[in-house]
Amino acid sequence: MMPELNDTLAWEYLEKSSHDRATIRHRRRVQIAETASYKNYPEAVKIELPLDWSLQGARLQSLLQQRRSLRRYHASNGLNLNEVSFLLWASQGITAKMGGHLLRTAPSAGALYPIETYLVIEKVADLSPGLYHFDVGRFQLERLVPEVRGKDAARVCLNQDFIAEANLTFLWTAIFRRSMAKYGERGFRYLFLDAGHICQNLLLAAEAIGCGGCPIAAFYDQEANRLLGLDDRNERLLYAASIGRK
C-alpha cells in the first residue's frame, strides 16, 4: 500500500528543498560539478538541417523566435479582460471531451490536471486588483482577496521587484493527490511537467498579444502558500510567471 501523502519520499524532497527567509542565505548548497552545455557524438554521421522552412506554422515560428524572459513592462499600458481570458484559455482552457475527461490546451499525465491557476491582478481594465482563482470548468475568475497586490507577489517571490510592475502574475499550485493517488511517487514528477507545459503555452500566448512574461520558480514556500490561502498539506505553489505589456 502506498504511504500517505505526507510520508512519501516526494514530500520529504519538497520539504527539504523549500526556501524560507531565515535559512536561504545560510543553507549549505550541494557542490555539483558543472558539465558541458551541449552533447554530441563525434563519430556519428552528421545530417545538416535546413533553415528555410516554408510551413503553415510560420506564425508559431515567429512567436517561438521572439519569446524571451521579460522583466520590464510598459507601465502605462494595461491589458484588458478579453486578453486575460485568452491567456487563461491558451494556458489551461478546455478544448474537448473524451470519455469522462475534459481535455485542455496543455497536456497532463492521465488527463488528471493537478495544476490550479491563481492570478494576482495589478493593471487590467475591467478587473479590480486582487487575488483571483481560475475556475476552469466554468471558465470564470473567482475573486478571492482584493487586498493582495503585485507587491505582495513580489515579496514572496524573493523580493523580485519586476513582479510588482507586471500587469498580472500567474501562480500555479499543485493538488498532489490528483496525480499521486493514481501514479504514486512517480506522479510527483508529472506535477512539474504539467506546470511546464502550462507556462510555455502562456508565454507563447503572451507573445501573440504583444506581451511578454518571465517564469518564476524562486519563492519563499510557506509565505507564498499563505498568501494564496492554501492548505499546504495538500496543495502548494510550484511555479509562477509575471505577464506584462512590452
TrEMBL record:
Q: Which Gene3D superfamilies match?
A: NADH Oxidase (3.40.109.10)
Q: Name one GO molecular function term.
A: oxidoreductase activity
Q: Which Pfam families match?
A: Nitroreductase (PF00881)
Start and end of every Nitroreductase domain? 65-245
Coiled-coil segments, which residues? Answer: none
Report the InterPro entries cross-referenced here: Bacteriocin_Proc_Enz, Nitroreductase, Nitroreductase-like, SagB-type_dehydrogenase
Question: What name does the UniProt record give this protein?
Answer: SagB-type dehydrogenase family enzyme
Biological source species: Desulfoprunum benzoelyticum
